[in-house]
Amino acid sequence: MGGKTALITGGATGIGKRTAYQLAENDVHLVINYRKSKAEAVSLAEELSKKFGTKNIAIGGDIANLAECQKVINEALSVFSSIDILVHNAGPYMHERKVLTDYSISEWNYIINGNLNALFYLCKLLLPEMREKGWGRIISIGFDRVETAPGWIYRSAFAAAKSGAASLTKTIALEEAKHQITANMICPGDITNDWKEKEIFQAADVMNDDTPIGRPGTGEDIARVITFLIDEKSDFITGSIIPVTGGKDVLGKIFRN
Predict the structure, then answer these.
(1) With 41 labelled, which of 15, 21, 219, 225 sits at a CA distance of 20 to 30 A?
(2) How many Å apart are CA 51 and CA 174, to the nearest integer?
């Protein structure tokens, strides 16, 4: 993994930030993409460079927009010779509970663009060079049960986009396998608020009866899986949808409540 460069969308805060720590610790250089959190992204890049000796930069851009994706990639490639790893962590989500007919056209399009089309945009821009190098890793983020294309009440746009992204991830895995490029989706469980940036040891002694494993999920739980998937020796794992939920039936609990 040493010497590779990764683009993490939405990398300034939350699970993206925790992933950035994990990858930098494993000698991966980083392009930390942000939409609004410029100060956090710049600070994180500087901190990781100082702590781990990797080269890390922050680049602003709304990945729901094709032109912004192109800008992010162009800026990144003006600093790094290649982008070897894509972690598409960013994805707009609407917390307000809305039935399908209450979504505005712009709300619907933004959620679809940020979660599904952005994966296409970024892969369209990055895959040709990965093919030339004969190596690449694509990681997308889903939700529990996404591979079954479930209905999700009040979350129609998000569920549709992520279900599409799951199928797209599997298709990329099939199309790009001959180029030694893998594509997988990770599906976090209920990792809430501050826990998204915390490490596993911080959760070890915190009881959580809501999760079968008995502790809260953390950003490190997700980051460790990402780190494993991008390893040179993980090339046999591709086209996989991997739940990281602590054994919890996340979507089922939502329906029961």
Answers:
(1) 225
(2) 38
Please identify, in words, the CATH class of the domain defined by 5-256: alpha beta
Cα torsion through 152, 158, 160, 166, rounded to 10: -110
Which sequence spans correspond to the domains of the chain? 5-256
The pLDDT-based confidence of 1 (bands split at 50, 70, 90) is low
Amino acid at 232: E
Sheet holding 29-34, edge to edge: 56-60, 29-34, 5-9, 85-88, 136-141, 181-188, 241-244
* Number of Cβ within a 10 Å radius of residue 244: 16
* 206-244 pLDDT tens trace: 888 788 999 989 999 999 999 999 999 999 999 999 999
3-state secondary structure of 125: helix
User: Structure tokens of 198?
Assistant: 């915390």
| Single pTM value for the model | 0.95
C-alpha 29, offset from chain centre: 16
- Listed in order, strand segments (DSSP E) in the chain are 5-9, 29-34, 56-60, 85-88, 136-141, 181-188, 241-244
Q: Which of 11, 182, 20, 176 is nearest to 88 (CA)?
A: 11
